[in-house]
Amino acid sequence: MDKQNESRGFLHWVGRVQRFMAIEIDSVSTAEKLVATLGGIIGISLIAFISFQVTGASGAALIVPSMGASAVLVFAVPHGKLSQPWALIGGNLVSAIVGVTCYKLVPDPFLAAGMAVGLAIGTMHVLGCIHPPGGATALAAVIGGPAINSLGYGYVIAPILLNVSIIFIVALAFNNFFPWRRYPAAAMMRFTDQKPAAAKEASVVDRHAIEQALADMDLVMDVTTEDLQRVIQLSLDHARHKQLTARQITLDHFYTNGKHGPEWSVRRIIDESVSDDPKRDMVIYRVVEGSAFNTASSCTREEFARWAAREVFVNK
């Protein structure tokens, strides 16, 4: 009995530590982890190479350390709110301007460093372009040493604007090479789990309600409102154990298998042969996203329903 109590006590302590440290179960696929790793390697390597070819500079004047943090966001969390183009570009540029200004106007280096980061955070908040690496961009303008300090406001153009432009172009091309990713999130998402506005179910949490909830909590989250809405809807669907039936497979509609990484796929029903006999009730589909893109095949409606996790809709 004592051993059982000790075991429960230990598990309770582990649970408290897990909650305190915000340790969550990793649900990201191996393919996604490898893609994020490869993106970081390519992104930073290209920044260093192209910046050197353009400027001939070295060290911090060539590539600022904050770009490493930006690479983590745009390649590991490409759908996150803090990773989007306005956050990436605006956050780094305004932080660079704030940092240089603090270096020039505040003689005490300790105060200048603190003000650079603090004012950069405030400015990003006001402009709606919060990007955590921006704090490092502002700080580097103050403590980056002679190579950075001598640039003055030229620091905003090179290396910052040059670095940011390169990493943005690489993120745009690289992330969209993999069909299950999208960058920028809103512009590149061809399909969504949300029904068109006119056909939404009453159970779907309205976007304005989510925005109001975030305002009530006075909370900044690294996730777009659309993604929050999607998470809530999918959670409700899974909670109800919603399973598509053969009758729900309809001509010209789109469906996904709901898997992650390279196994993800979206199919469109392009033709059908309706029959009361399940073995003769056939559908023809075309793969419009993901694995086996642009190929077509056929199967029974029941087989297709077993494959499909849910219906998706064209993102207009």
| Helical percentage | 40-55%
| Structure summary, number of beta strands | 6
Sum up the overall morphology in one term: globular
Can you tell me the residue ranges where pLDDT is under 50 for at least 5 consecutive residues? 198-202
Question: What does this protein look like?
Answer:
This protein is α+β, with helices and mostly antiparallel strands and 316 residues long. It has three domains: 30-175, no CATH class; 191-239, no CATH class; 246-314, no CATH class. It has twelve helices and six strands. It has helices at 2-21, 30-55, 66-76, 85-105, 109-127, 133-143, 146-149, 154-175, 185-188, 207-217, 225-239, 301-307, and strands at 191-192, 254-256, 265-273, 282-290, 296-300, 310-314. It starts with a helix and ends with a strand. Residues 198-202 have low confidence and may be disordered.
Task: Identify the notable features of this structure and list them briefly.
alpha+beta; 316 residues; 54% helix; six-stranded antiparallel sheet; 6 strands; 3 domains; globular; 12 helices
SSE layout and pairings?
Elements: H1 2-21, H2 30-55, H3 66-76, H4 85-105, H5 109-127, H6 133-143, H7 146-149, H8 154-175, H9 185-188, E1 191-192, H10 207-217, H11 225-239, E2 254-256, E3 265-273, E4 282-290, E5 296-300, H12 301-307, E6 310-314
Antiparallel strand pairs: 1-6, 2-3, 2-6, 3-4, 4-5
Summarize the structure.
The chain folds into 3 domains: 146 residues, no CATH class; 49 residues, no CATH class; 69 residues, no CATH class. Helices cover 54% and strands 10% of the residues.
